[in-house]
């Protein structure tokens, strides 16, 4: 993995943990942001700007992201495991707002996070939902890739 990709990978990992903390505790984003940047990860190299973008973006757009995800889910969003919910929100944010990141990278990173932190079979649920969401929000990118293969 390239150094820049590793920095983003770590940013996603920390963002997931921060989003999970926000969902579970209701702690302010500012407090969580400070905790992750200063207290927890001041000696770790990662893309801090991307971490901040993901954390603040997911929280700011949470209702919109949930609305995009709900049609592709087999259960209420509140019934989804909290880690998988955080992964879905994080990946949905990237699919909608981080168009420079290829959709396959977004989904692969989400699956990696889901396998690492989520339930044993949670990655399958996450994959199904994100694959359908990507078809909707990244249709131009997917069609362009299909025509080149």
Question: Can you put this structure into words, describing what you see?
Answer:
There is one protein chain. By secondary structure, the protein is mostly helical. It has 8 helices and no strands. α3 (48-60) crosses α5 and α5 (82-97) packs parallel to α7 (122-137). The longest helix has 23 residues, at 3-25. The chain is globular, with a radius of gyration of 15 Å. The relative contact order is 0.13.
Helices, strands, pairings?
Layout: H1 3-25, H2 29-40, H3 48-60, H4 62-69, H5 82-97, H6 103-117, H7 122-137, H8 139-148
Helix pairs in contact: 1-2, 1-3, 1-5, 3-5, 4-5, 5-6, 5-7, 6-7
Question: Would you identify the regions where 5 or more consecutive residues have pLDDT less than 50?
Answer: none
Tally of alpha and pi helices = 8
Q: Distance between termini?
A: 24 Å
Gross geometry? globular
**Residues in helices, as a percent range:** over 70%
- Provide the residue-averaged pLDDT: 92
